[in-house]
């Protein structure tokens, strides 16, 4: 069955097919293609060291208030007591590592095609930046069996099972988080019904990120600054830090993940729905010298043809109403200018 999000990406191809991740482990130095201008300033200023994103306990009785506050002030927070079996978190990390440790020739067999949204390759945001990233990714939407069969003709099942199982659990968690976040807003009955129905007609994606150990981590970047497009993202850091979030007035703040926790961030769609009350959050990933960092991001959204705009009781709508498909098209062309282009 064709995912509607997949179709949306087909119509907005990014020119990525000529960009193929390097064979990172074979490199003793960072090549010019991956050396970023110093203006990107990958170091975190010392004053930020004591700052940290909120930690929200999902079993706390004040959960709605806590999450609402976290979304308003930071747009990114960690969740504990999220109910995900730890074995599942381990499995998905294990399978991601298994994939990225394949020889480059093997991985290149499942390269994302120009019009495709799934498979192996550079991040979609790559063409917007002057340099390449110390990163390789693998995107899954729905079943991963077609690609997994190419990678492991006789051992694809465990990969697919781990991805399926992970997506199933993530979908439930993401939807519960979505409703909890919305419960701190004043919604009309039809709006509440619309939100509840997202679960049955959702679109989602799973992005496996790989940041190999880097000989000179201060000169390059893992994932360039960006905001996520859908409603919310749930990130599993696999116990290695590297994510940083931008906060106005503070600068780049590192996310030190509590062991076993997951990091949740607001995406552009939730920003639009909340009329800017829950701002989308700009984040990036840095690399390190010794560890090969893996992260797994789950993106949750409504179906691509769903029409959305700011909820009605949140004041004058700052954004116009549009479909997710249309928004993805604008983002594919204009990246971080997308929100300002749909401003009323
Ligand atoms: C549904 C999706 C969100 C995403 C594009 C994608 O099709 C799958 C990959 C996602 C990702 C991960 C890295 C950062 C990002 C901006 C990118 O280039 O690809 C996000 C995309 C997004 O949120 O727009
Ligand atoms: O790896 C990380 O810490 C960030 C990943 C991310 O931002 C993404 O996949 O959108
Ligand atoms: Fe992201």
From TrEMBL:
Its EC number is 1.14.11.15. Pathway: Hormone biosynthesis; Plant hormone biosynthesis; gibberellin biosynthesis. Residues 202-302 form the Fe2OG dioxygenase domain. PROSITE patterns: FE2OG_OXY (PS51471). It is an enzyme of class 1 (oxidoreductase). Keywords: Dioxygenase, Iron, Metal-binding, Oxidoreductase, Signal. Gene3D superfamilies: B-lactam Antibiotic, Isopenicillin N Synthase, Chain. One of its GO terms (molecular function) is gibberellin 3-beta-dioxygenase activity. GO terms for biological process: gibberellin biosynthetic process. Its cofactor is L-ascorbate. Belongs to the iron/ascorbate-dependent oxidoreductase family. GA3OX subfamily. PANTHER family: 2-OXOGLUTARATE (2OG) AND FE(II)-DEPENDENT OXYGENASE SUPERFAMILY PROTEIN-RELATED. This is gibberellin 3beta-dioxygenase. It comes from Rhododendron griersonianum.
């Amino acid at each position: 069955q064709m995912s509607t999000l997949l179709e949306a990406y087909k119509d907005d191809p990014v020119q990525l097919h000529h960009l193929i991740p390097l064979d990172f482990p074979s490199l003793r130095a960072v090549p010019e293609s991956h050396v970023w201008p110093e203006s990107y300033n990958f170091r975190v200023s010392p004053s930020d060291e004591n700052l940290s994103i909120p930690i929200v306990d999902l079993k706390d009785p004040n959960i709605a208030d806590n999450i609402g506050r976290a979304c308003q002030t930071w747009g990114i927070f960690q969740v504990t007591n999220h109910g995900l079996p730890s074995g599942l978190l381990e499995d998905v990390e294990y399978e991601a590592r298994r994939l990225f440790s394949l020889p480059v020739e093997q991985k290149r067999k499942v390269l994302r095609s120009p019009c495709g949204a799934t498979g192996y390759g550079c991040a979609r945001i790559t063409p917007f930046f002057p340099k390449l990233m110390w990163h390789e990714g693998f995107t899954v939407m729905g079943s991963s069996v077609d690609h997994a069969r190419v990678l492991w003709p006789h051992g694809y099942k465990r990969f697919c099972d781990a991805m399926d199982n992970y997506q199933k659990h993530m979908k439930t968690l993401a939807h519960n988080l979505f409703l909890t976040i919305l419960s701190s807003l004043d919604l009309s009955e039809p709006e509440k019904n619309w939100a509840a129905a997202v679960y049955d007609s959702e679109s989602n994606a799973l992005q496996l990120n790989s940041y190999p150990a880097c000989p000179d981590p201060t000169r390059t970047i893992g994932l360039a600054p960006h905001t996520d497009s859908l409603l919310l993202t749930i990130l599993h850091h696999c116990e290695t830090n590297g994510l940083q979030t931008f906060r106005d007035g503070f600068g780049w703040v590192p996310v030190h993940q509590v062991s076993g926790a997951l990091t949740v961030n607001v995406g552009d769609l939730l920003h639009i729905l909340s009329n800017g009350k829950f701002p989308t959050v700009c984040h990036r990933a840095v690399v390190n010298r010794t560890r090969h960092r893996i992260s797994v991001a789950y993106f949750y959204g409504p179906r691509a043809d769903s029409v959305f705009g700011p909820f009605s009781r949140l004041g004058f709508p700052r954004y116009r109403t549009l479909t997710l498909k249309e928004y993805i098209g604008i983002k594919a062309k204009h990246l971080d200018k997308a929100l300002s282009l749909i401003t009323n």
